[in-house]
Amino acid sequence: MRPLDRIDRDLVALLQNDARLSNKELAVAVGLAPSSCLERVRRLFRDGILTGAHATAAPEALGIGLQALIAVRLARHSRDHVESFRDHALGIPEVVACFHVTGGNDFLLHVTVRDAEHLRELALSAFTTRREVAHIQTHLVFEVVRKGAWPDLGR
């Protein structure tokens, strides 16, 4: 990946915090002509530095009443088991994030469900029936607070 200069870093930070900023607003903020700013942003997307823009919805509006983290320990640690389970987990609509981790568990899955019964059914039908899975442990999420941007550790 190519190194980022100050203007690229500023554009990335601005867009991570508010992807709805207009090109004109971005240009003013970083001190570029609008045409130069537009080309910079296009290049950041083309180079894979900016990977998307999104809107965040209120979970309750989508029928989500409960969130949980499910820790999954695999029966074996072969590449086939890891990839098979990861692909399975990512195919489940309720799984919103999948982390392959070190330690006592192999995966942490962030799941969203309607209620406790939905969570129970999901755990039993989607995870405990898998041949790759040796153990699961479910943790209810009381609150989710997300930061809007990755920190720039390359400055």
How would you sum up this structure, described in words?
The structure is a single chain. By secondary structure, the protein is an alpha+beta fold. The protein has 2 domains: 6-46, Winged helix-like DNA-binding domain superfamily/Winged helix DNA-binding domain (Arc Repressor Mutant, subunit A, Orthogonal Bundle); 59-141, 2-Layer Sandwich (Alpha-Beta Plaits). 37% of the residues lie in helices and 20% in strands. It has 5 helices and 4 strands; from the N terminus they run αααβαββαβ. The protein has helices at residues 6-17, 23-30, 34-46, 79-90, 116-127, and strands spanning 66-74, 95-100, 107-113, 133-141. Strands 2-3-1-4 form a 4-stranded antiparallel beta sheet. It starts with 5 loop residues before the first helix and ends in a 14-residue tail after the last strand. The model has no long low-confidence stretch (mean pLDDT 95).
**Strand content bin:** 15-25%
The succession of helices and strands, N to C, reads: HHHEHEEHE
> Which CATH class of the largest domain is shown?
Alpha Beta
Coarse shape: elongated
How many β-strands, per DSSP? 4
- Proportion of helical residues: 25-40%
CATH superfamily of the largest domain: Lrp/AsnC effector binding domain/regulation of amino acid metabolism (RAM) domain
| Mean pLDDT figure | 95
Main sheet makeup = 4 strands, antiparallel
Uncertain runs: none
CATH topology annotation of the largest domain: Alpha-Beta Plaits
Strand order of the largest sheet: 2-3-1-4
CATH architecture of the largest domain: 2-Layer Sandwich
Q: Which class best fits the helix and strand makeup?
A: alpha+beta
Number of helices: 5
Q: Rg from C-alpha positions?
A: 20 Å
How widely separated are the two ends? 15 Å
